[in-house]
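Hey, can you fold this one?
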Amino acid sequence: MAVEMAVLLPVALAMVFVMLNVLSYLANCARFDPLAAEAVRIEAVSPNAGSYGTAARAKAAEKLLSQAFEGHGNVSISVKGSQAIATGGFSDQGVSDSQAVEFSFLPLHEVYTCTLSYRPWGFPQGLFGLELFEVRHQRRLVIDPYRPGVLF
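Sure. Predicted structure:
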């Protein structure tokens, strides 16, 4: 009986750590989705004075999200902003000359991709010869950067 317990105890502990990591990841994802939408809404629609570029607004939203997850050592946050173009693609993916539209009545939208990267805890760098990797969860938000109070 002692031999069976010596064989099964490490496997049972590994399963417990895996389940705790899965539950922690799901809890962080459930917390991240509404916070990402709120941070992009706050920082992208009505930014601070002097931060009117897409990259500056994405950095401000990233800072706000990072402050919300400050106590979590195994979580990292990144926010990337790009502008949607009239052809339906995104400016960071590239558009050929035949697809480019010089003038469009469609509004210019901005796309913010918020990424939560989760690194498992409780294990060394590898487990049973397998290297552990980080898991990513993305939330893509499209906004119209209309700023209330600004007249053209």
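The chain has two helices and five strands. Let me know if you want another pass with a different chain boundary.
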